[in-house]
Amino acid sequence: MIGETMRQHGLMATHSFVEVGQLWLLASRESYIPDIAALFTEMELRDEGERYGYVSSVGELRDRLQLHGFTAKRALKELETAVGIWHGSMEPNVLDLGVTVQDAAALLAELGAAVNTSNPWVRQEEPQEVFWQQLETRTILRLALDVAEDQDLPVRYQLDDLASHGFLERGVPITDQAREERRENVAKDAPLVVLTEGSSDSQLLTEAVRVTHPHLDGFLRFMDFSGGAEGSVSNLAKLVRSFVGAGIANRVIALADNDSAAHDALDKLKREGLPDGYRILHYPDLPLLVSYPTLGPQSNEPIPMNVNGMAGSLEMYLGRELLLVDGALVPVQWTNYVSGRRSYQGSISPQEKSRVHAKFRDKVSAARRDPTVRNEQDWSGINAIVEAVLAASGCGDGADGGASPDVVGGE
Questions:
Q1: Is 256 helix (H, G, I), strand (E, B) or coil?
Q2: Cα end-to-end span (Å), the chain
């Protein structure tokens, strides 16, 4: 059963299990569950004598499950379906026998009470007809994480008993092994692929995530298939079409600039429709860009405008401090008119882009040397991009009716 306290039943020997708060769940006798191990990293391994295993947190594991498509809505829908099947399998006179028949809400309430209690001897019994016979282990874990009130609550994968009884050799990188096994079975459990317009976007975003979301390093990858060539949104559209034509099984997000040229170039692909699992995503609107200085033929002085959707290249998301020169924001220069969008395309100058890139790499290095420096830096743009990718990775899971207005893809 999902959380029946093993300490009360003498079942500690040769078991592995997940510990969320005080609740023990997902026990496996004389082995561990590869799908659960794959959610941790070797950096999270803790060898503390009698406590050997991996330690992450509720929030970090939620994000990792989200990237694998195990969203909150998907988990809830699967639970409700399982409960419905369970109820339908009961004998007609079961209620006359005094058996309590719980619905999904009641099961979640009991699970939440067990996860959030401070009682170290918590006992939580769930109907195995629902949890063990129908739900996937990662769905069960997602349900337990979603009812946790503290996203910083430690989540441990306890393996000390396996190690002490010789079923697991200490130091063996089981998380890496588990993920490698997953990659070898792409068609069954395809990892998320995030395609960008070119090498620079891919490299900068990869460096940024290591600062803002280090727990996603190795899970969220911005792929570069340009071979070092200068990227473009037209090449991104061609790449998506080639993935579709080749029948790539991975979930794919095409991540593009939030400017006139990118929206225009991808409009046709959006109208064509994409297979389930494919998404077209632009960098999200940013408060900084709502009133941003612009230069055009109408004035010799910068005019503040909302440049979201017209001049939102990656440079605009790398931090407000990098866009300042002598205390003033570097203006966007309007260039060509994009008739398909009925708007002008804008960007900061190529020289300023190069300067921002160099300064951003310095910013990343400083933040990684001393994490306290992050408090003095602006990472709001990067955070917004990562959150948009996390949200898009859950679209099409069959639980939320399709994509959000900012995400286009297969239903």
A1: strand
A2: 35
162 and 239 both lie in a single domain: no
Letter string b/e over residues 127-149, b meaning 16 or more CB atoms within 10 A of that residue's CB: beebbeebbebbbbbbbbbbbbe
Is 241 in the same domain as 261?
A: yes
Residues 353 and 229 in one domain: yes
Structure confidence by residue, pLDDT tens digits, 250-281: 788 999 999 999 999 999 888 887 887 889 99
Is residue 1 one of the residues assigned to a domain? no
For residue 62, being part of any structural domain is answered with yes
CA 157, 161, 162: angle at the middle one, nearest 5? Answer: 85
Closest CA to 382 of 251, 243, 255, 270: 255
126 and 237 assigned to the same domain: no
The reported pTM is 0.78
| Count of structural domains, the chain | 2
CA distances from 325 to 107, 270, 328, 329 (A): 57, 38, 5, 6
Structure tokens at 259: 């400017």
pLDDT the model gives residue 55: 96
Residue 39 in tokens: 């959610």
CA distance 27 to 273: 43
Question: Residue 227: how many CB atoms within 10 A of its CB?
Answer: 6
Which of residues 160, 183, 206 is at a domain's end?
183
From CA 253, how far away is CA 32, in angstroms rounded?
32
- In which domain, by residue range, is 271 found? 192-409
**What residues form DSSP beta bridges with 194?**
222, 253
Q: How many helices (H) and strands (E) does the chain have?
A: 13, 18
